Amino acid sequence: MEIQEIVRGDEMAMGFPGTSSTEGSSPVSSSVKRKRMFQAHWKESWPWLVLKEIQGERPKMFCDVCLKYPDIAISHSGSGRNAFVNGCDQLRIESIRAHETSKAHMACFLRNNPGLEIPFKAQRLLKLNNTKKKKKHKTFRNEKAAASQGSSPSGRVNMNFSLTTRNHDAGKRKRMFQAQWKESWPWLVLKERQGEEPKMFCNICLAYPDVAVSHSVSRKNAFLSGCNQFRIEPIRAHEKSKSHTTCVSLCCEEKHSVMDSSLFKNEQAAQYKQADGFPGISSNNQTSLSPLTSRKDKKYDSEKRKRVFQAHWKKCWSWLFLKETQGESPKMYCSICLKYPDLAVSHSPSGKCAFLNGCDQFRVEPIKAHETSKAHKMCILLYNQEMKKTLDPTLASNAGSASPTVQCRAQLLIVQALQKLKEIERKRLMVLFTNAYCIAKQGMPLSDMDILCSAMKTAGVDLGDNYTNREKASEFIKCEAEVIRQDIKDIVLNSRFVCIVADGSTDNALVEQETVLVRVVNEGKPYTVFADLVPLYHKHAPDLMDGIVNGIKKVSLDLDQMKSSHSPGPTLVSVNFDGAPVMMESKGGVAAMLKHDIPFLLPFYCVTHKLQLGILDVVNKSTYISQFEETLKCIFKFYWKSPRRRKDAKKISKVLQANFTHFSDIEETRWVSGKEGALQAVQHDLHTVVMHLEQIGTQSDESSARARKYLSSVTSVRFITALYRLRDILEPVSQLSEFLKRDNILLIHVQPAIERCVSNLEILKNDLGENMQQFYNLYHPEQGTFGHQASDGWEILLSGPCPSAPSIRDMQLVENVIQYIDERFSHLYSMPYRGFQVFDYTMWPEGTEELDAYGRDDLNGILMHFDVLFSTQEKLAIIEEFSRLKTHMHNFKKKSIPVVCAYSTLLTNHPSNLSNILKLVEMMFTISVSTAEAERAFSAMNVVKHRLRSRLNRAILQDLMLIKLEGPKFEDFDPSRAIEYWLSARGTKHVRGHKRPYELVE
């Protein structure tokens, strides 16, 4: 109510067209028509309203704001007239409201208040016609009410924003500390330091700074270093944070020492020691949290009755008694459960029994809950069992029915039988959940659940009659995937930095799928996890952006919260996409859209894709390499489309005592290593292919002409030299590609690996490679043959001249490969990519003075790029700790320990004297350089969703992918947690009664 009064007062001061909160009405006589008059209280709701009485005329209403700018008011009126400029004699609220929301009045108001901006929704409302304006009047009022609380939902400065306080600057509200906040949060304190703006602090966290920092996810505590965001939301967020609750618990365990009077209000200190009774979040005092709490609720909080033990409860529950211990509050106990404490604890779901340890909740509900609990019933049964010894045996014989003791004994046997039945059912569920996990992990059809269960029943395994169909298999897989997904969420949310990895592909149903993964640091090692598989309707940048944002939400990541280190959760520092222009285009690509919102973001182009594109550039520029590739493609199709030809070629290879290696299409391979493998297969099967083509060429069918054409190309010196030369060139490039596809590869490994590859290629400019030397050893220019001349060898007659070794053409080919590799990876030599090389201690100089000065400029370059993520004190500490890091890593360098293992040990141990520099190390571990993990995910998708299972529902496809990629090995799988999750779901657990998590389509 106080805030509404302030807003209303400011509206009166500024002349804003407010919405009346009072709608006065007076009775109308049934016989005499009411004469409407101007109501004085209207000026409270509309301060711009003026009543003028001219002699000889009826009194009329005028608008004070529109009278200042009559030309604007008339020009913005639809009819060219303005009733509140010329005078309105319709003394009704409807006329005032119509003028209030009119375009003319709004234009005059903005002219009178030039510092304000109309929200987008209000602009649209002003453009509506009169009919729609009436329907949208409620929308405008809601937008105006929301604007009085702060900025508009669209994020722009609202025109009502400055009206909430008179102290405004260019339309922006200046928030200040509210004194009434201390009533709800007694630990809150405001401190003003000279030369700095005032900040809010937490007295409890200041008393335990080490505990507060250690329990913060980002190792920062805003209310420990000072918070200048004077809003209720940061206070409530800190109140519920793990660091604050831990400090409060520690403070309470110290028996409420001298801090009671300053930190805890009234008599709440005794409540804080209980589970949800931390300051400000007590479940018994939630109404005192907000300054907007009604007076009635505050009165209830202050006059709430104090519950005590009622004596008449013992008449209803004879086993109940009250026990008072000195120095503690009185508690209720159960006399029956105290006789059998082990039995009571063992049959309690949580392992605890409130009426065994003492219950201080003096309410009827806890007593009734204990009375109906399984633990209490078991104790009662055992108590009655023992009481049979005191009963007279004649009473039981004379009774017309079974005695109470016999009935209790029978009930005890029934309970024991039910427990045994429960254990049997749990064993059945363990087997059933394991079968479902096996189906998901191996990519088997869900219908195999029936087959597996039938086979196990035949083998004598007791599985019961329920839960053995494909529908229940989908439910079990859903529960198992949710357990794995929850573990992934915990790992991701506890990380400091995160990198998004995304790649696209088409599945067997011809649906564009975008695989989204996230890379974090877990237990000191880089950890890339599967987030989601998102179908795309269009492969445009906005659609891809939405798909990635929705994908990371599966692991509880929000892009808006990852833009700054001050927000809770991890910070997004890098993205790694494939080579598609829509992803990496500098202007309209997805990476550019992300970098516009996050300036310090490091967009990374997958290095393996770049290497592939570099080789394609060489092929497109070289004519004879293009012809060579086209010939290989034709030979591939010649054999691929004819099983008979493949069979004949295998027969020839057996005659030659060689294994026929099927070579794939060199143009269709995605990686450079695949191209090198295709060339190796061609080289291995060359003699077999030549003999088979000669055999087909002698026949008189339609394929003989093509075979003779391919034979003339394959048996040319130009083709053979290109084959062996490309093998020499692609061998170091293929090794580089295989190295970069590793999961634990770091940014500091890329540049040295590329330099090694370029060095090996430089050697090929002037020297023959291993394969070219083999060619010249097998080539005989006098006879023009190629092969072994021994009696058991083979020879091929080649056509064409043999070039010199090495030829100018070969040297130019190597030069082109080096040039395109340098062009594709030139960005790695710029900041901040180059700066991370300072952490590669294998490159550090040996001299003490040189080592001391090494890497300072690069380190400053990294800190300059990520300036917003680190404070000034942290930057100075990082530079100081870099010298300690060099000394610390010297021992690892002596022992020749790999860089990844050395830094993983540091991140795991986390020494306090290197805490700041290790943030950069963790960032380096987080940055991904390859999308190989996304390619592995596509391979798993093709196993799960193949051509016979192309109609899988999206939900179950995601769960199957998650289990296949992130689930433990089959022999390490424990279904206990998944069973608990399934049992806690809604619905009864029988075949037709349990609600399935999702509808299955396969």
UniProtKB/TrEMBL annotation:
Limits of the TTF-type domain: 34-124, 173-268, 305-392
Which stretches of sequence are listed as region Disordered? 1-30, 131-158, 275-298
UniProt xrefs under SMART domains:
ZnF_TTF (SM00597)
Q: Where is the composition biased (Low complexity)?
A: 17-30
Q: Where in the sequence does UniProt note compositional bias of the Basic and acidic residues kind?
A: 1-11
- Enumerate the InterPro entries for this protein: HATC_C_dom, RNaseH-like_sf, Znf_C17orf113, Znf_TTF
- Cleavable signal peptide: none
**Compositionally biased, Polar residues: which spans?**
148-158, 281-293
Pfam families of this UniProt entry? Dimer_Tnp_hAT, zf-C17orf113
- Which GO-annotated molecular functions does the record name? protein dimerization activity
Q: PANTHER family, alphabetically?
A: DUF4371 DOMAIN-CONTAINING PROTEIN (PTHR46880:SF5), RAS-ASSOCIATING DOMAIN-CONTAINING PROTEIN (PTHR46880)
- Which protein are we looking at? TTF-type domain-containing protein
